[in-house]
Amino acid sequence: MSDAAPDPRSVSCTIENVVRTDRGRLLSALIVQLKNFQLAEDALQDALASAVVHWGRTGLPASPQGWLLKVALRKAIDRLRKSAREDREAGEIARLSLAEAAETTTEDIADERLRLIFTCCHPALEPKTRVALTLRTLGGLSTAEVAAAFLDNETTMGQRLSRARTKILAAGIPYAVPGPEAWSERLQSVLTVVYLIFNQAYSGADESHASPLGEEAIYLARMLNGLRPDQAEIEGLLALMLITEARRAARLDAGGTSIPLALQDRRLWDGARIAEGLALLDRVVARRAPGPFQIKAAIAALHVQVEPPDWPQIVLLYDSLLRMEPTPVVQLNRAAALAEAGALRAGLHALGSLASALSAYQPFHAAHAELLSRSGSTDAALAAFDRAIGLASNPSDALFLRCRRDQVARQAPETS
User: Fold this and answer.
1) How many CA atoms lie within 13 A of 126 on its CB side?
2) Is 130 in contact with 190 (CB distance < 8 Å)?
3) In the chain, pLDDT over 70 holds for what percent of residues?
4) Virtual torsion, Cα 104, 106, 112, 118, nearest 10 deg
5) Domain boundaries, the chain
C-alpha cells in the first residue's frame, strides 16, 4: 500500500476500470474455484463494496485484481457460514491459497475465462442460454442488457440465467476445456458467443465510450487459437474481428455520428491489425475447409483492400454464406450487396421479401431507406428512415440516420 493519502478520484477510477476491464476474468476465477455462479457473483460484489471503503482509507493495493480475488474468496466463506452450510464446505474454500491470490494479476486469471466459456456453452444448456450466460458472466453485461440483446424482458432473462446456474451446479457440469472428442461439437457455439461479445462493443447504448468487449473477444479468440491452431474457423473469426476492430477509430465523427464504411478516413484505420487479419485469412483459405466465419472475414477483407469494393465478388461470398447460414440477416446483407453491384431493383425486391421477418431490425429499415431513396421513392424512404431511427440502439446510429433522412428530404423534388 502507498503511504500517501488516498486520492478519492484515483480510487474511484481504479474501481471503475477494474469493473469494466477485469470483471470477467475475476468472476471466472471465482466461479471455477467456488463451483457456484451466484456465490461467485455475490462475493465479487461484496469485494468491490469493500474496496470502495478500504482503498479509500489506505490507498490502492499493488495488485487491485489480486486484492479483489482474495477478498472475494473470504466473502464467499463468510456467506457460506452465514447460510448455515456445512463447516466442511467453507473449510475447503478456506484452504485455497489466499496468499497466492493476493499476488494474482490479470494475466494469471485469464485462462480461467476459457474454461468457463466452455462451461457456459455446454450442450446441456439451450443455445440461447449459452449465449446469454456467457454475455452475463464473461462479457460483463447486466441482466437488462442481455435481455435487450434478445428482445426479452429483464425478469424473463433473469429467470433463464438463474435456471442455467442451477443446472450447471446440479448436473455437475465440469469447469474445463473439452477434450478432442467433444471439441468440434462445442466449438461453433463458443465461437458464436465470442463473436456476440465482440459485437456488443459496437451495439451498446453509447459507442463513443471505448468498450473493452472488442478486445476481450479478440483475446478469447487468440486463446482458442493457441489451444487449437489447426482450426480454420477459429482463425477465420479472429481475422474477422481484427479487420473490423481496425476501423474503430474511423467509425465516428467529432460529433459522435456514425460514419459508413465507404466514407471513413482510411488513414485512421489500424494497418497492423488489418495486415494480421489478412495474413490469417490467407492461411485459412489454404486449409480448404470453409466455414461461416471465414466467409465473413473474406467479405470484411474485400471492404478494406480496395475502394470501391468488388461487389460482385461480395455477392458470391454471401451466396456461399447463405448455404451455411440461411438466415434473414444474411439475406439482408446479400440484398444490399446486390444493389451495390448494380442490381438495385433486384436488391429492393429481395429486401421486400424480408419485411415481415426483420420488422423490428433497425439495419433492415436503414438499408431499405437507402435503396428506396436511390430508386426515387422518397416518401417511402423517409418512412423507412423514421422506422430505423425509432429502432436505433445507440445515439451514434440515430444521429447518422437523422442526417441521412434530412439529406434525402432536402433533395426531394418539390411538388406543385
Assistant:
1) 7
2) no
3) 89
4) 170
5) 1-104, 107-220, 358-416
φ, ψ dihedrals at 84, nearest 5°: 65, 30
* C-alpha distance from residue 128 to each of 24, 95, 157, 192 (Å): 20, 36, 10, 11
Is residue 394 classed as helix, strand or coil in its secondary structure? coil
Structure confidence by residue, pLDDT tens digits, 10-32: 788 888 888 877 888 889 889 98
- Are 299 and 273 a contacting pair, CB within 8 Å? no
Tell me if the bond preceding 326 is cis, omega within 30° of 0: no
With a CB cutoff of 8 Å and minimum separation 6, the contacts of 169 are 35, 36, 37
Residue 276 has a CB neighbour count (10 Å cut-off) of: 16
* Residue % of the chain over a pLDDT of 90: 51
Contact 389, 412 (CB under 8 A): no
Q: List the grid coordinates of 23.
A: 470483471
The residue whose grid cell reads 442526417 is: 403
The model's pTM is 0.75
- Region at 228 (left for phi over 0; alpha for psi -120 to 50; beta for the rest): beta
Buried b / exposed e along 264-274 (16+ C-beta atoms within 10 A):
beeeebbeebb
Write the pLDDT tens digit of every residue in 139-164: 777 898 888 777 688 999 999 999 99
Place of cell 459496437: 202
Beta partners for 252? 258
pLDDT in tens, 333-366: 999 999 999 999 999 999 999 999 999 999 999 9
Cα 235 versus chain centre, distance: 17
